[in-house]
């Protein structure tokens, strides 16, 4: 489990085809402190497993299922990625509960530079509309964000200067894709309510 608070930006230095997937070798520094083979790590919000490690790099495998649900497959060597290690049991939860299980890919429709922040608007498949609420949480490329504006098929977030600098948001352009993970608590609430309505409907029949 993660928090959506990115620890550092890593660099993809090797992208090696492996069957229908890829093995990524990523250069990093801060997250290397206690990273071991078998460790979980979120790469652009996607929970992956470390399979190789050197002093300043680690490698992870991506399979076909992962590539179908995320934008990891379009990454190129030299691209920067958001990195976060799993939440420790004694750590403060500064963002929100993030599982690292990407739901879908969104598209950046607008980026505005404001006086002391940035405003980003992202479109997403309409089938996920029920999982978003105004001022609710969402993970964008692994970054815990708050929905500031919600419309039919897009939502907007305000990005403070620190987040803009410390994540790959500053590298993004209109038309780029982002990995989206909707709030897991909202998913459970939605499932509970759906089951309740279904049960009540069956009882009335």
Give a verbal description of the structure.
The model has no long low-confidence stretch (mean pLDDT 91). The chain has helices at 64-69, 161-166, 184-204, and strands at 8-18, 21-27, 40-43, 46-53, 57-62, 80-84, 104-113, 118-123, 137-140, 143-146, 149-150, 154-159, 177-182. The strands form two sheets. A seven-stranded antiparallel β-sheet has the order 10-9-13-7-8-12-11. It has a six-stranded antiparallel β-barrel with strand order 1-2-5-4-3-6. The radius of gyration is 18 Å and the shape is globular. It has 205 residues and is α+β, with helices and mostly antiparallel strands. 16% of the residues lie in helices and 39% in strands.
Oligomeric grouping of the chains: single chain
Low-confidence stretches: none
How much β-strand is present in the residues?
35-45%
What structural category do the secondary elements indicate? alpha+beta
Alpha-carbon Rg, integer: 18 Å
What would the keywords be for this entry?
alpha+beta, 7-stranded antiparallel sheet, 6-stranded antiparallel beta barrel, 205 residues
Concise description?
By secondary structure, the chain is an alpha+beta fold. It contains three helices and 13 strands.
Structural topology:
Layout: E1 8-18, E2 21-27, E3 40-43, E4 46-53, E5 57-62, H1 64-69, E6 80-84, E7 104-113, E8 118-123, E9 137-140, E10 143-146, E11 149-150, E12 154-159, H2 161-166, E13 177-182, H3 184-204
Antiparallel strand pairs: 1-2, 1-6, 2-5, 3-4, 3-6, 4-5, 7-8, 7-13, 8-12, 9-10, 9-13, 11-12
